[in-house]
Amino acid sequence: MAKIVILTGAGISVESGIRTFRASDGLWEDHRIEDVATPEGFESDPDLVHQFYNARRAAARAAQPNAAHSALAALEADSTHEVLIITQNVDDLHERAGSTRVVHMHGSLFGALCHACGHRWPAPQTMARTDACPECGAQASRPDIVWFGEMPYRMEEIVRGLEAADLFVSIGTSGNVYPAAGFVQEARAAGIETLELNLEPSAGTRMFTEARHGPATKIVPEWVAQISG
């Protein structure tokens, strides 16, 4: 059974109507990254941050999985492959497409986190800074999102998956955000075959054994069909 570790980024969800994280002007949905995606931004204006993620949460709920998400779910269902998806995305489109082995290294829009005690719970559709933590009662709720300056989730599990893989595939990522951008280097150092599937060459394209470029809804299903026979 071939073990395949797949890293997905914003590019796989674009065709579902979810905008990429960082636009060419350095803004995310017309906001400065520093204002809505850092602990300092949250401390400075928690109301703005909650409003921002409430809107992202609503957009993610309205979006539907596309052909690329469905193809990866079909690959997982193929008993000849063992698939682990590591996603930088905070939507739930992989799960809604049918994938079950998904690691959200940057958290999820659908999770809430207590800034005071660390307790986690499912996020309501609309969050506010006055929401009380169901565990400690503190009014310190925040989205369970990994912001800049914070450590991505489940890194030990991710490293173990990479070390045991036969193939590492990167889909829809820019290759600019670490530590995910370094996964291809770790895979190559371990002698693992690597493949990039992206709309255009990423910052790390040269490090991949093979690279295929085009819309995710086209090249991901084609690749899955190829390796599934």
UniProtKB/TrEMBL annotation:
GO terms for cellular component: cytoplasm. Keywords: Cytoplasm, Metal-binding, NAD, Transferase, Zinc. Binds 1 zinc ion per subunit. Its main location: cytoplasm. Substrate binds at Y53, R56. It comes from the Bacteria. It is an enzyme of class 2 (transferase). InterPro entries: DHS-like_NAD/FAD-binding_dom, NAD-dep_sirtuin_deacylases, Sirtuin, Sirtuin_cat_small_dom_sf, Sirtuin_class_III, Ssirtuin_cat_dom. The keyword Transcription does not apply. It catalyses: N(6)-acetyl-L-lysyl-[protein] + NAD(+) + H2O = 2''-O-acetyl-ADP-D-ribose + nicotinamide + L-lysyl-[protein]; N(6)-succinyl-L-lysyl-[protein] + NAD(+) + H2O = 2''-O-succinyl-ADP-D-ribose + nicotinamide + L-lysyl-[protein]. Zn(2+) binds at C114, C117, C133, C136. The keyword Transferase applies. Its EC number is 2.3.1.286. Its cofactor is Zn(2+). The active site is at H106 (proton acceptor). Gene3D superfamilies: SIR2/SIRT2 'Small Domain (3.30.1600.10), TPP-binding domain (3.40.50.1220). It is found in: Cytoplasm. One of its GO terms (molecular function) is NAD+ binding. Pfam families: SIR2. NAD(+) binds at Q88, N89, V90, D91, G172, T173, S174, N198, L199, E200, A216. 2 residues (Tyr-53 and Arg-56) present in a large hydrophobic pocket are probably involved in substrate specificity. They are important for desuccinylation activity, but dispensable for deacetylation activity. This is NAD-dependent protein deacylase. It comes from Thioclava dalianensis. The lineage of its organism: Bacteria, Pseudomonadati, Pseudomonadota, Alphaproteobacteria, Rhodobacterales.
